[in-house]
Amino acid sequence: MFTDTASRPQDHLQRIRRLSHWLAWTCMALMFALPLALFAYLITAEVPEMAKMAGLSPDAIQQSLQVWQCWLAGGVASVPLAMLLMGLWQARCCFELFRRGQVFTGLATQHLRRFAAWIGAATLAGPMAATVNSMVLTMQNAPGTRRLVLGLGSDHLFMLLFAALVYLMADVIAQGQALAEENERFV
What is the band of 168 on the pLDDT scale with cuts at 50, 70, 90? Predict the structure, then answer.
């Protein structure tokens, strides 16, 4: 199949560079699109949709929402989004290093670790934001009908597992780098 084995590693590096370039641009696009999408959602969402955002049933909010409630709910919802954006920034930085051919470097593993940490933080902040928003959005309800939602879904557990996996992979790569450097010193 392959007759020229010397070109295969170079071809592989070229594929990594092309894909990393595309992924870095994708991260940037998401960093602009996600906050705009949240803002658009907040200014166009109806009360039942706002209730769903907080993990409430569509009829849980008994009165029309005050403007301050909508903005406060948006501010609370933006906290996990900001953490996700920080994770995307770290991923973009890592992809930029890969695009330049700097794959197994300390800086690349550092960005991978930070990406994993930010994704984990955003995943943990999501259910907390929903809990706070359930209180904010039902604050105007009659006593006894205000809600407090606590929830952790399988999607949150999966994302925590993903973040832990990426963090561990970064540690394994860093260990491999340390061993390679130690071997070079002996040669």
Answer: very high
Other Cβ atoms less than 10 A from the Cβ of 27: the count is 21
* 29 belongs to a structural domain: yes
CB 136 within 8 A of CB 73: yes
Q: Which residues contact 94 (CB under 8 A, 6 or more apart)?
A: 108, 111, 112, 115
8 A C-beta contact, residue 112 and residue 166: yes
Backbone φ and ψ of 183, nearest 5°:
-65, -40
4: in domain: no
| Cα 133 versus chain centre, distance | 20
The C-alpha atoms of residue 128 and residue 152 are separated, in whole angstroms, by 9
User: Are the C-beta atoms of 75 and 85 separated by less than 8 Å?
Assistant: no
Q: Which of 77, 65, 66 is nearest to 35 (CA)?
A: 77
Does residue 41 sit within a domain? yes
Check the CA dihedral 97-100-103-104 and report its sign. negative
**What is the count of structural domains for the chain?**
1
Residue 177: give the domain boundaries: 10-186
pTM of the predicted model as reported, rounded to 2 decimal places? 0.86
H-run or E-run covering 141: none
